[in-house]
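Worked example

This section walks through a single chain of length 88. The input is the sequence exactly as stored; nothing has been trimmed or padded.
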Amino acid sequence: MKRKMVRIFLIGTLFGVMITAAFTYVVAIPGNNTHWQTEIWERGGGAWTFDKHGRVGWKWMVDPIPDTPPAKPAVVPSSRTNVRTEKL
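Given that input, the structure is written out below as tokens.
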């Protein structure tokens, strides 16, 4: 009986450590990392949101600024063509 209780305790402790590590990896490290904070700030900022059913999600406060600048429209020079008009 004692061995079974120790095994349940160790399994519960291991499970708790794994959940804590996953939470730290997903939430705490990006939130405290200046690289991630800078990326979020430069792209317009974002916030955690909750919908009416209690689901958690991420929402950009404005449209994210893309990594690449928008392409400038290409200017095509007009070629000189000889247009001959015929009189009918």
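What to look for: The two ends are 112 Å apart (CA to CA).
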